[in-house]
Amino acid sequence: MKILGIGSNYVTDLKDIPKKKKGKKFIFSKPESSLAVNCDVEYPSKITNELIYEVELVVKIGKEGKNITKKNANSYISEIAIGIDYTAKDILMNARETKHPWEFAKGFDGAAPISAFKSIKSYDLSNIDFDLKINGEEKQKSNTAYMINDFADIISFISEYMTLQPGDLIFTGTPALGKGEIFKGDQLQCSINGELLLDFKMI
Asked: Which of 37, 85, 87, 106 has its CA 20 to 30 A from that of 48?
């Protein structure tokens, strides 16, 4: 299984999309061991003192594809979930300063909590609301209409470089506003179109 993600993929104003779309796509990866499916997550205090959350929609690839066209790309999605892309910011900053790889900042155990998956047949992919509440307070909220690169753009682009296979997961970007630091004891609740799908605690 590949777990891939795209950075900086949402705007707050729809008119900004055409300009932003001309920019270079930024793709990263996480190992399978970073997944935490519908369960509490241990705060990784042994490796970081600054853990940053980003809520994201996660799509699952349902069939193998290479050099996928944008026109056909959405047909490669079988299911959708919601998850958190955690980043150990202190590790990330140190890696950038030393110009070293930063896999440890994104790929530690528990760095990718996700909900169970649901069939995409229930959703209009161009109009999905999603949000994150922490301790009952809304922290992040957006809609897929505000994506710079939509699901088809991301899938088509990735498939130019690597074959996508059934079961591969893609974190598709976080809302432009609201990401921040998470702490031990915090309760996170993530919803798609108002339906609570992920509810867990940092322990």
From this structure: 37
Burial of 180 (0-12, 13-18, 19+ CB in 10 A): exposed
Handedness of CA 33, 123, 149, 56 (dihedral sign): negative
DSSP per-residue codes, 136-160: TEEEEEEEGGGBSS-HHHHHHHHHH
pTM of the model: 0.96
Report d(CA 95, CA 98) in Å as an integer.
5
Query: Residue-wise over 22-52: b if at least 16 C-beta within 10 A, else e?
Result: eeeeeebebbeebbbeeeebebbeeebeebb
The set of residues, in sequence order, having a beta carbon less than 8 Å from that of 167 and lying 6+ positions away, is: 1, 60, 61
To which H or E segment does residue 43 belong?
Answer: none
